[in-house]
Amino acid sequence: MRGGVGLAQAFGMSPLLMGLFVISAASSSPELFVALRAATTDAPDIALGAVIGGCVLNLLLVLGLGAMIRPMSSPPKVVLRDGGAMLLASLAIVVITWSGFVTRPYGGFLLAAFVLYVVVTFLSDWRRSADHSVLLARAEVRSRGEPLPGVGALFLLLIGGVGLALGANFAVAGGVAMARAFHLQEAFVGLTIIAFGVSLPKLLVTVVWAVRGNANLAVGSLIGANVVDLLAVLGVTAMIAPFAVSPLLGSVDVYVLACVSAVLLPLLAMRWRLSRPRGVMLVVAYACYLIFLAWRQGLISPALLHIG
To answer: Do the beta carbons of residue 279 and residue 68 sit within 8 Å?
Structure first.
C-alpha cells in the first residue's frame, strides 16, 4: 500500500485515481494472490471459498466489530451505488455458479462489469470533495506524512509483491495440507481460515479507524472491497485459470453471500447509520454462520446443537 501510494504521488496521480485504482487494488491484493495460487494448483474450493468467505466476513464480522466500537455513518451514495453494485455482483456469482464452472467468458463478463463500476464511480465522484467521496478520503488518509521518494516507493512495492506471492503460496499449501491432515473439506478451510487471513488487514484497519474516529470510511471501504473481490479478483482468476465450483459452495455459500448483501443494505439505510445494536447483530450472525459451517463439516454433532 505504501509503495503504491508513494509511486502514485511521485507520478502526480490525482487522489481520486489513487483511491480508485492504487488503494483499491492494494486492499484486495491478498484475495487476488490467494485465489490465483489456489486456482493454478488445483485447489478451486480454496480459491472461491477464500473470496466468498472473505466477503461474508467483511460484511458481518468486520463491519459489526467496527460498529460496536463506534457507530458508522453510511452515506446514501455508498449504500445505493456501492451497495447496489455489491448486491448485483453477488447475484451474478450465484448465476455463474449454476453452471458448475467459472470459465474465461464468465471471467471476461465479471471484468467488464468491474470496468463499468469503475466508470460509474469515477464519474459520480469527479469534482467531489473528500467529505462526499470515500475514495478521496481514503487517499488523503493514506497520503498523510512526508511523501516517499520514487525509488523507495518502488522498493516497498516490490517487497510487498514478493511477500504477497510467498504468503499466498504458504497459505494455499498450508490450507491443502490441513484439509488432508484433519480430513476437512477444502471449502471449509477456504471459507474460514484462509478467508480470515486475507481479511485480517481490513479487520485491523477498520478497528484502528473506529478507535481513532475515522469509522465513517469503513462502510464504503469494505463494500467497495467486496465489489473488487467479486468482480475483479474472480474475473482475473477465471481468465488466467478457469476453475470448477463444488456443489457445496454453489448450493449454499454463494446464496449466503447474496442474502447477507441484500439484508445489509436496509440496515445501512436506517438513518444512514450502522448503530452498535446492529453491529452486535452482525457479529452474532457471523458466529451463527461459523457454527453452521462447523456443523456441515461434522465438527459439531446435531445432538449438541439440539441440546444448546
So the answer is: yes
Q: Which amino acid is at 23?
A: I
Place of cell 510467498: 166
Cell numbers given for 128: 467531489
Domain boundaries, the chain: 30-130+171-307
Place of cell 458466529: 287
Place of cell 484497519: 205
d(C-alpha 283, C-alpha 291), whole Å:
12
Quick one: DSSP state of residue 72? E
Place of cell 466468498: 52
Asked whether 74 and 219 are in contact (CB, 8 A), the reply is: yes
Residue with cell 457471523: 286
Q: Whose grid coordinates read 480430513?
A: 183
**Residue 75: closest CA among 221, 213, 205:** 221
- Cβ pair 73, 86 in contact under 8 A: no
pLDDT tens for each residue of 182-217: 999 999 999 999 999 999 999 998 998 888 877 778
Residue (of 150, 189, 209) closest to 27 by Cα position: 209
Is 230's pLDDT higher than 90?
yes
Q: Is the entire prediction scored with pTM above 0.90?
A: yes
- Burial (0-12, 13-18, 19+ Cβ within 10 Å), 202: buried
What's the half-sphere exposure (Cβ side, CA atoms, 13 Å) at 70? 15
Number of H helices, E strands in the chain: 18, 4
CATH code for the domain defined by 30-130+171-307: 1.20.1420.30
> At how many degrees (to 10) do helices 195-212 and 218-227 cross?
160
Distance CA 28, CA 118 (A): 15
